[in-house]
Amino acid sequence: MKFFLDTANIEQITKANAYGILDGITTNPSLIAKEGADHAQRILEICQIVDGDVSAEVVETEAEAMLTEGRKLAKIHDNVVVKVPLTRDGIKATKMLSSERIRVNVTLCFTANQALLAAKAGAYYISPFVGRLDDISAEGMELIRDIVTIYDNYGYPTQVLTASARGPLHVRDAALCGAHVVTLPYPVFEKLFDHPLTDSGLAQFLADYRKSQEG
Ligand code: G3P
Q1: Residue 154 contacts residue 186 (beta carbons within 8 Å)
Q2: How many angstroms is it from 21 CA to the middle of ligand 1?
Q3: CATH number of the domain that 27 lies in?
Q4: CA-to-CA distance for 2 and 87, rounded, in angstroms?
Q5: Residue with CA nearest ligand 1 atom 7
Q6: Which of 83, 92, 95, 120 is catalytic?
Q7: 108 CA to middle of ligand 1, Å?
Q8: pTM of the entire structure?
Q9: How many CA atoms lie within 13 A of 82 on its CB side?
Q10: Which of 57, 164, 166 is the pocket-test mutation for ligand 1 (most atoms within 8 Å of CB)?
Q11: What is the per-residue pLDDT across 107-160, written as a single tens digit (0 to 9) for each?
Q12: Is the pLDDT reported for residue 56 higher than 90?
């Protein structure tokens, strides 16, 4: 399973990347705006830190304009995956960009049928938003399960990228469903490491070792 960080914050990206297990980054216009950074400049900076896929989202809404913007984003760095919203124009743009071998992450997916459209258009990643579905009392993880099953049924190569993950259980459940990727806010990524029994067990091991060394 690939782990992406869902942020445009350089400090968080640098810290997470230092563990050596980070596979990429997802950004969106909201995350970059939060950093007060120039869009293209920040994408380049991220690509220079992380050796993995970096999603950069278009802000155009009409297919031809998305195509032009997507081509520009893809030129920033080889690791850029162009992120396109799951709209009618977005699906057209996905088909056109994929035909040019530009990798596309189709975002804002909330149904299995939308995921089918993205796969048919040649998307490299589909991003279903689990947390936002949970927010409206739907079961986000059920969507991940459905999409993984449907893609398997037909052999679509599109990878399922679990987005809008809000806690460690989303990670475990996405992995159980067979999602290819999960993208995480930095605090959730950090939480994956922790267990109180790990801490107390280590403290005990070290205390016993020290005692054994005291003559
Ligand atoms: O990857 C998409 C993600 O940024 C959305 O997360 O928490 O705003 O629903 P959230």
Answers
A1: no
A2: 21
A3: 3.20.20.70
A4: 26
A5: 164
A6: 83
A7: 9
A8: 0.96
A9: 31
A10: 164
A11: 999 999 999 999 999 999 999 999 999 999 999 999 999 999 999 999 999 999
A12: yes
Q: Which residues contact 73 (CB under 8 A, 6 or more apart)?
A: 40, 43, 56, 58, 80, 82
CB atoms near residue 19 (< 10 Å): 11
Query: What is the domain extent for residue 157?
Result: 2-214
Domain count, the chain: 1
Q: SS in 3 state form for 153-174?
A: HHCCCCEEEEECCCCHHHHHHH
Closest CA to 126 of 151, 154, 160: 160
Structure tokens at 149: 């099953």
169: tokens are 């259980």
Tokens of residue 48, six digits: 């220079």
Pocket of ligand 1 (CB under 6 A): 6, 26, 28, 129, 131-132, 163-164, 183
CA 166, 167, 169, 171 torsion: positive or negative? positive
- Residue 215: per-residue pLDDT: 72
Average pLDDT, the chain: 98
Rounded distance, CA 159 to CA 4, Å? 13
pLDDT digits (tens, 9 = 90+) for 3-27: 999 999 999 999 999 999 999 999 9
Examine the residue annotation and report whether 83 is marked as an active-site residue of this protein. Answer: yes
